[in-house]
Amino acid sequence: MSGFFGTLVPNFIKNFFEESVWRGYLTAKLLKTKIKNIWLYIVVGGVWGIWHLPYYLFFLPYSVMYEILPIGRSIFAVMSIISIIFWSVMFVELYQLTESIWPVVLLHMVQNSLINHLMIDSHIIIISGKEIWISPVIGIITSLLYVCIGLILRHYRVKTYCKESQTFA
Q1: What is the pLDDT of residue 114?
Q2: Average pLDDT over residues 142-165
Q3: Residue pLDDT, tens place only, 109-131
Q4: Helices (H), 20-139
């Protein structure tokens, strides 16, 4: 748990700047273009993922990467970018629902501080060969769960917006 608490403040600071760019600026600008949601998720998630590329290819310690998914750096980087595109559904929808970066900053902070350290500090040990499915960082099931949560938020946002539009119509 020391990994979790020890990384909260640094992750808060880092993620304030990151979310100011990805949600506060990029998402806000794209929303003004009336872009379709699917393209919004792909563009924001793709740019967000590619921004992490140097970290995955050069700075992420191999031992940490191997704990998450025991594959080569290039494949890990590609899979991470795809996962981030999936995560962007939840992050973009939370931003749109709240019209604020703060819930997204807090979500990103807790995600980086908690989930990463559950794996790195060996609180979660995944059976070899199952990492691709259930890794809490880039697993297929985890990524699909983020998409589902994002789509639930979208449904709630659209439903709420439609009710408000009818009230003011």
Answers
A1: 83
A2: 88
A3: 998 888 877 777 777 778 888 88
A4: 28-32, 37-51, 53-54, 62-68, 73-98, 102-110, 116-120, 131-134
Tell me the C-alpha to C-alpha distance, in Å, between residue 165 and each of 111, 151, 157: 34, 20, 12
- Nearest-angstrom CA–CA distance, 74 and 5: 31
Distance in angstroms between the alpha carbons of the first and the last residue of the chain:
51
Rounded CA separation 107/4 (Å): 14
Compute the half-sphere exposure of residue 133: CA atoms within 13 Å on the CB side of its CA: 5
Taking CB atoms within 8 Å and a gap of at least 24, the contacts of 120-123 are: 120/3, 120/64, 120/67, 121/3, 122/67
Buried b / exposed e along 20-39 (16+ C-beta atoms within 10 A): eebbbebbeebeeeebebee
Residue 135 region, left (φ>0) first, then alpha (ψ -120 to 50), else beta?
beta
What's the whole-model pTM score?
Answer: 0.88
What is the arithmetic mean of pLDDT over 95-106? Answer: 96
